[in-house]
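Thread: quick sanity check before group meeting

JM: Hey all, I'm pulling together slides for Thursday and realized we never actually wrote out the predicted structure for the chain we discussed last week. Dropping the sequence here so it's in one place. If anyone has concerns about the input, flag it before I start.
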Amino acid sequence: MNVTHFDTIIIGAGISGISAAHYMQADCPDKTYTILEGRKSIGGTWDLFRYPGIRSDSDMYTFGFAFKPWVNPKVIAPREDIMHYLQETVAEEEIEQHIRFEHKLLNASWSSEIAKWSLTVQTPDSVNPVIFTCSFLSLCMGYYDYESGYTPHFSGKENFKGTIIHPQRWDESLDYTNKKIVVIGSGATAVTLIPNLTKKAAHVTMLQRSPTYVVAQPDVDNLAVWINNLLPKKMAHRINRFRKILFQRFSYAFSRKFPELMKKVLRKKLVEELGKEFDIDKHFTPTYNPWDERLCLVPNGDLFEAIKSKKASIVTDHIECFTENGIKLISGEILEADIIVTATGLNAQLFNNIDFEVDQERVDFAKKVCYKSVMFDGIPNMTYAFGYTNASWTLKCDMTNQYTCRLINYMEENGYKQCMPILQDPDLVLKPFLDFTPGYVMRVIDKLPKMGDKKPWKIEQNYFYDRKMFENDPLNDGILVYE
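JM (edit): ok, ran it. Output follows.
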């Protein structure tokens, strides 16, 4: 069997995989690498999701790359602009020649004897899987199942005569002109979909079991535009990026330290948007604290405008069953619908059902502890890019990928072939991998790795903490063991 070897193999050509490729080229220019991408194109999430209005729910100065300025005036950007940005990056850096599309990783096995990963990969050109080997494995595969979204069981679903569709598998040929639509859900996808569906639909109802915190923000940052026009691109990008990082960090820290005050601030803004007569306590006041789950961004208040115009409405209730013509609620109310959109979330899946082995022993990630949020105890020469839950995803992935290159270079300089964190602290208290409670996390929390209660096993979700750790902490800390 032919075996193809690279110094580093990156899994995934989404936004974090493209970032990893950039840093491999910039920081490890003498190392060979390839990207294995299971789909036919780059972009990951931004290529997969096609529902109406899909856009970023973070500002693009921090969701974009540190190394490539975001110059588009829209700081909350639609999918098309994000894809153009990614395609432009790949072209400018000549990354596409390193990508192998429709190469799906099935199994990854580490051998300490030869200090290599062996990857079993399904390709479009062979009946049987092929083998790739690498000295270092960089996982940039996201955190959810690309094949299907999460849809709970709904009684009577088979009786509904209309169309049921999940946003993750949106049919772009679906004609919803003058249709009555019910969107089940209250998260980022739902609040994005609803104002965009109202442009054609007769009426759109957001049906939620419980409210979510939402906040309006302009999709154009006028100060950022002024800075972009005044200064060179790279300097302007650094300033705008740092401004947004500070704002994200302040708003999160403020929310966690003063949750009741933050609730009042958010409620006051909603009253300004919707008026005192709207039942904000029922429809927009969650039972949890801000940032227990992610705040939903509403660009230019478009959701509120749709509600005020009567093109959209909100119902807070539980579903009893689907009927032929809609949904019956526990309260007895009937919601008529031609189309039901189940914006009910993702199936979280950190490692895409890939089997990992270390020296012929299967890895159970639920028993692993995360080191510096990028490696796992007892697993050699592998990093995992997992972004922030309380800020822009790419902000952390950029630093993770830089750290990966720093580690590879350190190993090269010292003649090491293998490196892995070893947990030897009997007093370490283990905690859940994420201090974050949305449904898609809680459904799989028992399958996720753990974190510890102290550095370097603790995940802080703090850019400034992480930046210092990734850039300045010694690589010979006694926990990373080299051979």
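AS: nice. The first helix runs from residue 15 to 27. The chain has two domains: 3-146+348-482, 157-342.
JM: adding both to the slides.
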